[in-house]
């Protein structure tokens, strides 16, 4: 009996030991990495300079980037990553410096921060250049300069490098391999420079990773997949050329995860190849712009978990010791919540940039062109309506009533306030504005008002200018504006042509305001590299997805065409 008990005890101990060993092995295979992008570091100015007319954000800039605070935001991100004991690596997908093409000091400052982080935390950092980091001009920081400055952050320990580019590979933990892919063209300020040979190199490296028993992870600066509606048209310089065919190849070579930046938005997008292989592109927002985020990724054989991390504070004492000109109100707002402060900064900067862009000079309009009066009037009308209060006396809502257009009540103060809120939501990810909700309704109806009010004014200035000048002497208002208002009583608030314009725009507005791709942008869980997914021809699914999208857009189109805004 004692012998039997001894055997059972030994067996139990052996099983327990094996279980413990298995648990340790499984834990060792877990990989946790931090991913940041578009640091856009600026050497801080000695004193703030007045850029725009605003009570609080008067030093905001057209890029809406917190330039003077950038170094302190980077410091706080590095501190957070260093204190996360489970995080093993930090990846940065380009645009480490804002003026990196011209100002070498920006790169050396960032490299010094990363070096200090590595030495103090023991966590390796791997970088890839972005379009702001090097160029081919006579006085530009060259690619070789970039690789020399950041030699300790991937290049010195690279397993392989692609000559003539900043691409390389390194191992991450025991099961993964990073393919750091330089997607830039040094002769272009923004667009990508990806060639067929470079795409093939990435595929070869993915194959080699699998041959070595590792899973390939790709990091690049430009986006691989669409992170805004029709990005390849509206924002083509931010996504690589022929992106779907490249995504098809990458997915079929077993790349599941891609980290990108450049678009400055927090967005996760997915593509399924015709063979049924999925690939996910995680675009990470600019660290030094709202929402001041980076990603934390945890990878195991079974699942890939991710979450967005926010920088919500900086050392304001250190900031004010370097940069003068901040008021106590600035500092109090930053200390109360840097993320909220950054959102206000971004909204004011975006408004400033759009306002600057809507000038005849920026649009390249010749004052002598036959259509100049029409364009100038349209621009003036657009600015006027966006700057008007949405509600109250002399408001957009009041003007809209003259055309039988109903502007719903909301907490937004102006058209600019609403437009920049939607832009901020795009940057932050998880856009959740319902197409039939208040925000999009206000946007569409304001667009209708701009079209209609501008149309009447353009007609007034171009077609009936002389007649109006004569009638004005008798105290009569503009003819076309009055005719237009009368027509709305009979025909409804907008003409068929304007319904058509709104109908065409509505799918784009829908995709911009509501993230419908089924992948959570900021927090979620995906199948891991080790999960076997049965590959099957995906043609039928793709056709059905296209049909569903067409039906969705068609329903929006017909809804706008037939619906009276009331």
Structure description:
This protein is an alpha/beta fold. The chain folds into two domains: 302 residues, Purple Acid Phosphatase, chain A, domain 2 (4-Layer Sandwich); 205 residues, no CATH class. It is 47% helix and 12% strand. The chain contains 20 helices and 13 strands. The strands form two sheets. A seven-stranded mixed sheet has the order 4-5-6-7-8-10-9. The chain has a six-stranded mixed sheet with strand order 3-2-1-11-12-13. Strand 1, helix 2 and strand 2 form a beta-alpha-beta unit. The longest helix has 27 residues. The termini are far apart.
- Biggest pleated-sheet summary: 7 strands, mixed
Query: Average pLDDT, to the nearest integer?
Result: 81
| Low-confidence regions | 1-28, 459-477, 486-504
**What coarse outline follows from CA principal-axis ratios?**
globular
Number of strands: 13
| CATH architecture tag of the largest domain | 4-Layer Sandwich
What's the gyration radius in Å? 28 Å
CATH superfamily of the largest domain: Metallo-dependent phosphatases
Q: What proportion of the residues is helical, as a percent range?
A: 40-55%
How many helix segments?
20
- Rounded to the nearest angstrom, the distance between the terminal CA atoms is 89 Å
Query: What is the CATH class of the largest domain?
Result: Alpha Beta
Question: What strand order characterises the main sheet?
Answer: 4-5-6-7-8-10-9
CATH topology of the largest domain: Purple Acid Phosphatase, chain A, domain 2
Number of domains: 2
Our estimate of the beta-strand percent is 5-15%
Structural class: alpha/beta
